[in-house]
Structures are given as structure tokens and as C-alpha cells.
Amino acid sequence: ATPTALMVGTGRGAQLGILLKGPEVLESTRRVDTIVLDKTGTVTTGEMTLSSVTAAPGYDEQQVLAAAAAVEAGSEHPIGAAIVAGAPNPLPEKATDFVAEQGVGMSGTVGGRRVSVVSPSKVEADLPDVLADAVAAAESGGATAVVVLADETGAPDGKALPAPVGVIVVADRIKETSAAAIAEFRRLGLTPMLLTGDNEGAARAVAAEVGIDDVTAGVSPQRKLEVIAELQSRGHVVAMVGDGINDAAALAQADLGLAMGTGTDVAMAAGDLTVVSGDLRVVADAIRLARRTLGTIK
Ligand code: ADP
Ligand code: MG
């Protein structure tokens, strides 16, 4: 590869709305055969909105929402943003001592009580029927449910015990360009896969709508990395497209890490290539450009 030809490729990449970390990125772009896509913020807009709030018996919906929003004020996750945006402003009480656990949820102290907002899959306590039903309905419809836990006294030793007090459902939209981009990946001979920390129901609903058959859902950020490593050990050259902080490790593991421009600075730093517009079709353009550019200089 001559430097001049690579420079041309890089320059045209910038015109397409792609930032390459270095010219050598074109080489891995050319060899990719599998494209792993994060769901939230990559295939979907990542702009989640609040759909519903359900309170456990004896609790109040508005209070559940206010407590959850106070905690999520400390989160960078689209789920947190949806809950904050859907809650009354200003909130009656702010939270302190925030802890974000990637792929799990967010917690904080509100009015002297520990409150967390977490994935239903991480809740050990049994959910009251009304909450379990709310989770099931949301997930079968392709939405995302989170459980609000609040410390209640009641443990045998007199200590506080986290009790499920409500379920909040949020949903986002599939990007208008995603289905066309995935069809384009297939035309380029790439196998698309959806890899997400979100629940199986939401993942399957999105995958069906955009034309992806291969779905791995409910995975931790660490597991995302392992899934990519397993594909590589079977001889695949893997591109990973992601947006969030929780994708940084997987992006770094991939042969080609692509960060969506709508994502966080951390993901962008981990990506070899940044798609400025957030439009997945640009990824297909980049792969075509890399093949063409390197094809001419071999
Ligand atoms: P994705 O792969 O779709 O980006 P994440 O790994 O970010 O998903 O999150 C996985 C799951 O963890 C979410 O679907 C949600 O259940 C839970 N979760 C993550 N962050 C938060 C948060 N700030 N508040 C509530 N739940 C969260
Ligand atoms: Mg994400």
C-alpha cells in the first residue's frame, strides 16, 4: 500500500463522515466478514422515551418515578435519560452517592434510602405479580423494562433489605436507515449479528424488523468482548459497531471497532473508525471504500 493511495482513502472517508484513527485501519476494514452490532444507539436511535410506570402494591407511581429519576440523574445511559426526561422537573428530592454498574443499572441514596434501578434479570427478589406482568408485557412488545428497588427495613437482622417497588418501561425507535444498511452489509458478503445487554424480547423484535437472524441478548460488557473473541478464534474477521461506554472493551477486541458518532467519548476513543453521523449505511460505504482503495494499490 502506498501512502498516497491511503491518504486518498482517508480523505474520502472524511467526506463520507468517517474518522479513521490511522490509514492502517483501511486494511482491517477491507478484510472484515462479520459485523456485530450493538442494539441501543446503534441499530436504534438510543433516544429512549418513558412508556409506563407501574408501582408495587402499597407504593405510589409518582414517587417511584421521582426516586428512580433522582438516581438516574447520575447516569449516562439512554434508559436513565428517558426516566429523567419523563419525570416531573424539578424533582422533590435529589440523590447522592451514585453508583453506576455497567450492564446492570444505577443506584443512589434518596431521602436516606438506597434506591436502585436495574435490569429485571439482576433482581433476585420475587417480583409481585403486577410488576412481573409489567416486565413480561414490555419485553414481549420489544420494549425495555427496569425494576426500581428501594431499601426497606425487614431483614431478620434488622438491616435494610432491597424491595421491588416498581417497574418502569422505556422504548426507543429503530433508525430509519438501519434495515437498508443491514441489507447492504449482506450484499457486501458480511454476516450481521445483534449483540446486546438488553432483554431477549426487545432484541428479537428489533432484529426481526431490520433483517438480522443472529441474536445474542442479555450479555454483560465482558461477555460482549468474549463473543467477539470466540468469532475471531473461529477465523472470522470481526467489525463491532457500538455507541456506549459499555461497548468500549468489545470495540477494542474487534478487528475493526466502529464507534457511532452519537455515542460517548469513551467509545469513540476505543473505536478505530468513528461514524460521525450515526447512520449505519456509512459503515457499508466505508467498507466498500476500503476495498476499492486497497484494491487499486495492491
Ligand atoms: P445495550 O447493550 O443495549 O447497550 P447495556 O449493556 O447498556 O445494554 O444495558 C443492559 C441492561 O442493563 C439494560 O437493558 C438495563 O436493563 C440495565 N441498565 C443499564 N444501565 C442502566 C441504567 N442506567 N438504569 C437502569 N437500567 C440499566
Ligand atoms: Mg449500548
Automatic annotation (TrEMBL):
<protein>
    <submittedName>
        <fullName>Copper-transporting ATPase CopA</fullName>
    </submittedName>
</protein>
<comment type="similarity">
    <text>Belongs to the cation transport ATPase (P-type) (TC 3.A.3) family. Type IB subfamily.</text>
</comment>
